[in-house]
Design a protein that fits this description.
Helix content is 34%, strand content 18%. By secondary structure, it is an alpha+beta fold. A four-stranded antiparallel β-sheet has the order 2-14-10-12. It has a four-stranded mixed β-sheet with strand order 3-7-4-13.
Length: 303
């Protein structure tokens, strides 16, 4: 106790933790120069809830089947436009993703689609049964089996469960991260992937730097414990917790530099490149050599 004891002050009602002098120095330095993400020019939104993934999330073969059954080039073009590639929480890695060639039928209620303009898609969905697709919350017994409709909403049977009024955000450059994770991975997406409800997306300004910071050892060192730990050492990265993370402001030139580094590491990830980015973030925050060595390179094993 005498060897490892540290002095700590508990003078507020905020969550507290016992830190060594150097840990307290690092965290105080980071928090003193940061602006909470909720005050940045960014938006954080949930991924898409379908209410019935078996029907609305499909593989490449099902997509081709639907498109091949279209009766005209116009119908095929319309249908192709709303069957979009999707990333799930499990697909996200540090500076990368593993796309499993999954697609989502993106019939968002806010888009007010007319399903009769998509006859092949309509036939495919009806193959699951109207009772299962409708959004009434009702239960049915069909051939002795209980079938439960999706939860009650004002949406139509062929639409996703969520309205997704922010549907256009998915087409913008964005950061994607899982809502539940052991690894705290973030990836910058410019290909317009949609995401399921197991992810969040971040759109707005300075996304190159934010991607680098959120993937950094500094972020893990200072803020991993800000997110509630669940069973199996999984952490919950909900928007309410992410909003309060303080992040240093950067100039346009600094953003461009980090955006270039992020593009490079996402094209070809190596630990050496991640360490170089860490070093630039350490220097940006003015950490001493001792502080930088104390943090080191933190790798949760996600790559």
């Amino acid at each position: 106790m005498e060897t490892h004891a540290v002095n700590s002050e508990f003078d507020s009602f905020e969550t507290w933790s016992i830190l060594t002098d150097i840990e307290r120095s690092i965290k105080a330095k980071i928090e003193s120069v940061g602006t909470p993400l909720k005050d940045w020019d960014v938006s954080i939104n949930y991924g898409i809830k379908t209410g019935f993934n078996d029907a609305f999330i499909i593989d490449s073969a099902k997509r081709e089947q639907i498109l091949s059954n279209c009766q005209s080039d116009e119908e095929r073009e319309r249908t192709s436009a709303i069957i979009r590639p999707i990333l799930r929480g499990r697909d996200i890695k540090r500076y990368s993703y593993n796309w499993d060639e999954k697609y989502i039928i993106a019939t968002f209620p806010s888009r007010q689609y007319n399903i009769d303009d998509y006859q092949s898609l309509k036939s495919f969905l009806l193959g699951f049964g109207m009772e299962r697709l409708e959004q009434t919350g009702k239960e049915y017994f069909i051939d002795g089996e209980k079938v439960k409709a999706r939860k009650k909403t004002n949406n139509k049977w062929f639409e996703t469960q969520d309205s997704i009024s922010y549907w256009d955000e998915f087409s913008k450059p964005k950061i994607i991260y899982p809502n539940m994770t052991k690894f705290l991975p973030f990836v910058f997406d410019t290909k317009g992937f949609l995401t399921n409800q197991k992810c969040f997306i971040v759109t707005g300004e300075k996304l190159g730097f934010l991607t680098a910071f959120l993937n950094s050892s500094l972020f893990k060192f200072c803020f991993a414990n800000k997110f509630p730990e669940l069973q199996g050492k999984t952490r919950e990265l909900s928007k309410i917790f992410m909003d309060d993370i303080p992040v240093i402001s950067v100039s346009v030139e600094q953003e461009q530099r980090f955006a270039t580094l992020v593009e490079d590491i996402q094209n070809d990830y190596t630990q050496e490149k991640a360490i170089i980015i860490d070093k630039q973030i350490f220097d940006l925050y003015g950490l001493t050599k001792e502080e930088q060595l104390y943090i080191g390179f933190i790798d949760f094993g996600e790559n």
